[in-house]
Amino acid sequence: MSVKQRGYKLLADFDKVNNFLIDSYSIKKLNGYLLQPFWEYAHTHPFFNHKMTHRFGIWEDNDKVVAVVCYETDLGECLLYAGERYEYLYEEMLNYAEEQLSIHRDGKRKLRIWITDKQKVLFNMLVLGNYSMINKEPITIFNYDKGFKDYILPEGYSIISLEDENDIKKLHHCLWKGFDCGDDPDDNLDSRLFMQSAPHFRKDLSTIIKAPGGAYACFAGMWLDEKNHYAYLPPLATVPEHRRLGLASAALTEAMKKTASLGATYCFGGSHEFFSAMGFETIGYREEWEKIW
Q: Which residue range forms the structural domain that includes residue 100?
């Protein structure tokens, strides 16, 4: 095999990695949880550090991406994924990650690595490499074979999509308050507009629940991998004064129904107990490992 490694070029390589993550996906392996929607969503997140993406590493076989090392938001964290037949690259990839993605502080280096419990090769390397597991959370999906519950909204609330109405100021307020970012939202509306610029972002798959008076009370984003027939959620947020009314359950269910009509057969959720209460099942675990040297 003529595998070559090089640095990631944000503008030139985004689609190449996108296609690799789609083409190599398997629910049995889970891409190290480096799902294509996860990759794309991260690139448009306000916390994503675009200036350091040249430190990402990609490995190519005859100009086709077969492995990638990257972070989710910034240096100091890492995800590694090699396609089937290329897992022998993990040792080289781990060494690369330690050199390029670790942070330097107080004369020491530090790196946190996320893997799944499906990545047995990486698990053994981390143990031997003096990493320690510091966190573990379930990977959950909702199988559409179960069917969907019907939710009745409280009086005065209504469901729309961003295709129906896209008030960026209201959306920013909803997500700011919904994620408990503070009392008063900042004025960075451009960050919300930027998130809607992703190639596979679809306004019609997003779901808003409007409160009486017109404010956005709850928002559920949704992504779709059409080739692999799955949906991927983020974000999901409810403004505090509108919580415990069943709005998040209604919004998420509506969003899943949309993707079901487009061929999706299941949806990835989160680790919060809310998802298990909705019928999401655990199919594996994400593990966070840390090394300081």
A: 3-129
